[in-house]
Amino acid sequence: MGVELSWLHGVYVLFVIGIIATMVHRRDTSLICIAGIAALGLTATGSISAAVGGVFGSFIYAITELLPTILVICIIVAMSRVLTETGINETMIRPLASLVRTPALAYWVIGIVMMIMSWFFWPSPAVALIGAVMLPVALRVGLPAVGAAVAMNLFGHGIALSGDFIIQGAPTLTAKAAGLPVAEVMTASVPLVIVMGTVTTLTAFWYLNKDMKSGALRVDPEASAILSAPRDTAPVRLSPVLRSGLATLVPLLFLLDVVAMFALDLRGGDATALVGGTALLILLMVTVLAHRQAGLEQVTAHLIQGFQFGFRVFGPVIPIAAFFYMGDSGFVSVFGEMLPNGSHGIVNDLGVALAHTIPIGKEVAALALTTIGVITGLDGSGFSGITLAGSLAQLFATALGSGAATLTALGQIAAIWVGGGTIIPWALLPAAAICGVDPFELARRNLYPVVIGLLVTTLVAMFLI
């Protein structure tokens, strides 16, 4: 049997329950997480000054661990801004619009393009681009605006963000919390992402098609009129030849990144660094070509915009990540060797104790991780709770003796599908706004497909653990 549990383990469990309860009530968890870190420090050291200093130290530890992920997202958003303002994004996607001839094609083309764009740029920057360019085409061929919004949500904020295979922000967070290599979590997530994506998008399309045939869902002519109004999306003008050349070069560079990842076996931080460096070079090149004499100042302006976006998104993540890192290697880094003798980390100790007291089967573990993912996604962030999912996946896997990567991936998928922008109304505002639909209507339309997808994916995970 493992190390004997102490008050330290009890405090950790108490605050985990408190964090989950806070998320269920859709309240912010930062205060609870900070209090939890201080309580862990005070329990371990008996010193108020060490506990208070440990809160700051835990933030430093969490930021150090998350900084590569935050940085690459900041740079990609900054690059996306300059591509949008120069019209390069629109030029890149325009040829695909000619392929759309029917509502069904509109749904699948919008979804697949959104998924591809979201893999490289993340969904938030991709929403405005897809909506501005593809939505008028979809309306023209008979796909209602809510159908386009569903496609953007499910393929972008669902499939692309929950897997996050290129930027690797989500699997990096969950893998670190679970104490696993990023590549292992990504590999385990592939079949689950495929199952979840296939079931959800097919189910949503079936509902859309049924409602269109019955007349319950029609194209809104007012939405089409709004979208056809003049838009000031490209205040910086490039010559058509230069814009077309850059629109070809940008995806080619990222395609070369993907080839390099496979050829050089780049994973995790190395792959993230390659994508981030490429995005930074594109940002510099396009900004200088577009702004010429003002290029130096505009590079800084775009980087500031990117950093503002990144820290606004990850601001709520840092306190909760700081707390859950205390359940593993972060505790010793912040508070020193204050764990009980023989301890391998608070979460590992709890997992061993759980294995010897409560018989946990793979079915119970899979259902628990899906439930935890759903609960943590209720705050509408998707990312704020995936460190919790990773930490608890490690706990259950320790009790089972296997399945850590699959459980981690399952928790990640559930949290991001629920909170990342598919069924929480306040999280899917960007897609709802760009398509001119009611966010609550969009959330209701996504609800059944996402729930069905989660049930099927959980069932599949039970066989993979």
TrEMBL record:
Organism: Brevibacillus aydinogluensis
Annotated coiled-coil segments of the chain: none
Swiss-Prot/TrEMBL keywords: Membrane, Transmembrane, Transmembrane helix
Transmembrane parts of this sequence: 6-24, 31-53, 59-83, 104-122, 128-147, 154-173, 185-208, 246-264, 270-289, 309-327, 423-440, 447-464
Name of the molecule in the record: Transporter
Statement: the UniProt record of this protein carries the keyword Heme: no
Superkingdom of the organism of origin: Bacteria
